[in-house]
Design goal:
Layout (H helix, E strand, L loop, with lengths): L2 H7 L4 E6 L8 H8 L9 E4 L5 E6 L5 E6 L5 H12 L2 E7 L5 H13 L4 E5 L20 H12 L20 E6 L10 H13 L4 E6 L3 H13 L6 E5 L7 H9 L5 H9 L3 H21 L4 E5 L4 H11 L1
The structure holds flavin-adenine dinucleotide (FAD).
Flavin-adenine dinucleotide binds next to strand 5, helix 5, helix 6 and strand 8.
C-alpha cells in the first residue's frame, strides 16, 4: 500500500523507521532479530537505505596501493523483498541518483515494480567521505527532482527507449514517491527560501510526501511545516527523529547533517558517566519530542535507527 494511503486511512498516530542493509559479510538474521520485537507495534512501512559504492585502498604484493570501488552495504532491494515476505509489511527502498545512470534507474524500478513495491524514497545521495561536492553519473542526474521526474514518467508508461515498447501497451507503474526535506536547510542551499523553492519543484514533479532530516528541537519542524504550507506545499511532511546514543553524536550529527542540538540536551549528554546513560538521555529526549509532535496532531513519525534499531523499541513502546 502507498505511504500516503497508510496515512490517510490511519485511525491512530503511526510510526515508521529506517534500517540500513547489513554490512557486506553480515547475515540478514541480524536485521530480523532487531525487527522482530518492533513488529508487535505494527509499523505500516519500513524504509531501507541505499548506500553507494565507496573507494577503498588495498595494498598489493609490491607494496603499492590499489584503489577499489566497493559497496559496503549492498542488498537494499533484497532486504525490502525479505521484509515484505517475512512480515507482510510494506518496505520503502531509498533510490539515489549517485552511481546510477537513467537506464540503471529504469531497470531498478522495473525490479521494484515486479517485487510489488509501492513506494520509493527518492534522493540525490550522500557524498562520499572523500568528496566535497556531488558529481552526477554520465547519463545520470544532478538533483533528486530529475529522478522524481523519471519515476513519474514510468508511472505514465514512458520508458527511456521505445525500441521494444508500444507506448499504448507498456505497463504503467504506480509508485508513491517520497522526497527529503530539511527543517534546518540542506547544507548546500544558500538559504532556507532557496531550499524550499527546490523542495516545491520536487512536489510539482510528482512527489507525494516529504520525510524530514532529523531535528532535535520541534520548533524547527513546526516552522518548516508552516513555511512549506505558505509556499503551497500541501503533501504530508513526516518528521524524522533520531535518539542520540553516544557522546560522539554531539559533533558528528551536526557536522554530517548540518543541524543544531539544543544546549539543554548537549549539557545532559556531556554530564553522562556512561554510554548507557547517554542512550537513556537520547531515548527520553526522543520520547519527549514524539509526544509533543503527536499531541500537535502529527499523523506519523519516522525514526532514524542508524544501525541501532533497538533504541527505537523503547521509544515506540512509550508512545504507541
Ligand atoms: P536534492 O533535492 O537534489 O537537493 C540537494 C541540494 O540541491 C539542496 O541544497 C537543494 O536546495 C539544491 N537543489 C535541488 N534542486 C536544484 C536545482 N534544480 N538547481 C539548483 N539547486 C538545486 N543518502 C543516501 O545516500 N542514501 C539514503 O538512503 C539516504 N536516505 C535519506 C533519507 C532522508 C529522510 C533524508 C533527509 C536524507 C537521506 N539521504 C540519503 C541523504 C541525502 O541523499 C543527502 O541529504 C543529499 O545531500 C541531498 O539529497 P536530496 O534528495 O535532498 O537532494
Amino acid at each position: 500500500m502507498k505511504v500516503v494511503d497508510h496515512i490517510a486511512k490511519a485511525k491512530k498516530s503511526l510510526f515508521s523507521f529506517e534500517i540500513l542493509p547489513p554490512l557486506r559479510g553480515h547475515d540478514i538474521k541480524d536485521i530480523f532479530s532487531t525487527l522482530d520485537p518492533l513488529m508487535e507495534f505494527c509499523p505500516p512501512f519500513i524504509d531501507v537505505t541505499y548506500h553507494k559504492e565507496e573507494f577503498i585502498y588495498v595494498e598489493k604484493d609490491n607494496g603499492l596501493l590499489q584503489r577499489k570501488k566497493i559497496s559496503r552495504r549492498p542488498g537494499t532491494v533484497g532486504i525490502c523483498a525479505a521484509i515484505m515476505n517475512k512480515y507482510g509489511v510494506d518496505a520503502v527502498p531509498h533510490l539515489i541518483c549517485e552511481g546510477f545512470n537513467k537506464q540503471m534507474t529504469e531497470n531498478a524500478l522495473i525490479d521494484l515494480n515486479f517485487l510489488g513495491i509501492d513506494n520509493v524514497l527518492v534522493l540525490r545521495g550522500d557524498l562520499m567521505k572523500s568528496e566535497n561536492s556531488f558529481f552526477a553519473e554520465k547519463e545520470g542526474y544532478k538533483y533528486a527532482v530529475e529522478l522524481v521526474e523519471q519515476v513519474q514518467d514510468l508511472n505514465k508508461g514512458k520508458y527511456l527507449d521505445k525500441t521494444f515498447i508500444e507506448h499504448k501497451e507498456s505497463t504503467l507503474f504506480d509508485f508513491c514517491i517520497g522526497v527529503a526535506g530539511y527543517p534546518e536547510k540542506h547544507f548546500e542551499a544558500p538559504n532556507i527560501e532557496s531550499d524550499l523553492f527546490f523542495l516545491k519543484k520536487k512536489i510539482e514533479a510528482g512527489a507525494d510526501y516529504i520525510v524530514t532530516q532529523m531535528f532535535f528541537d520541534n520548533k524547527k519542524y513546526f516552522t518548516f511545516v508552516k513555511k512549506c504550507r505558505s509556499e503551497g506545499i500541501s503533501v504530508p511532511i513526516i518528521p524524522g527523529i533520531k535518539p542520540i546514543s553516544s557522546k560522539k553524536h554531539l559533533n558528528s550529527l551536526p557536522s554530517r547533517f548540518f543541524l543544531n542540538i539544543p544546549n539543554e540536551l548537549v549539557k545532559e549528554v556531556e554530564k553522562a558517566k556512561s554510554k548507557k546513560i547517554v542512550s537513556h538521555i537520547g531515548i527520553e529526549w526522543a520520547i519527549h519530542q514524539s509526544k509533543e509532535l503527536k499531541d500537535s496532531g502529527v499523523e506519523i513519525i519516522h525514526y532514524y535507527t542508524m544501525d541501532r534499531p533497538e533504541n527505537i523499541y523503547n521509544i515506540v513502546q512509550a508512545i504507541y
